[in-house]
Amino acid sequence: MSDILDLDGTGNQLQIQRDTAARKTGSHDLSKNKERSTFVWAAFHGRARRGHGKIRLPSWLVNQILDEHGLDTKPNTVRRVMEFAARGTSQGKTPDPEDDDNEKTITGGVTPVVTRGERSSV
Question: Which of the residues 7, 44, 60, 115 has an alpha carbon 20 to 30 A from that of 14?
Fold first, then answer.
């Protein structure tokens, strides 16, 4: 995955990586949902559940991550944050949370966020 993600910040970072860096500076113009999604992004690999050939972050874990940071945990907010996290991993011109080319994707409704690399092993 390190060949896909520019972890050093030297080149082609994903939008979610740029948003996370902006949030950490303290001065940013991110929407509330984009800001919340950066917390989910940061926690994804450490908190996601493996199973059925995929890595999933269920909505209840997204809710827990948001709650730990004192952020809104209403069901619609959790759904939107999951969409923003998936959309932020898009490398396309028109980000879509369900795009199979995203590093993370929403698989429909308020379902788990899934890692692209794991989907191919199903």
Answer: 60
Asked if residue 98 has pLDDT above 70, the reply is no
At 52, the amino acid letter reads: H
Q: How far apart are CA 89 and CA 96, in angstroms?
A: 9
Domain ranges of the chain: 15-119
Assigned token pair, 95: 């980000």
pTM: 0.68
How far, CA to CA in Å, does 50 sit from each of 6, 20, 36, 77, 79? 24, 24, 23, 24, 20
Helices 32-47 and 59-68 cross at an angle (nearest 10°) of 110
Cβ–Cβ under 8 Å, residues 113 and 60: no
pLDDT in tens, 26-82: 888 999 999 999 999 889 888 888 877 777 888 899 999 999 999 999 999 998 998
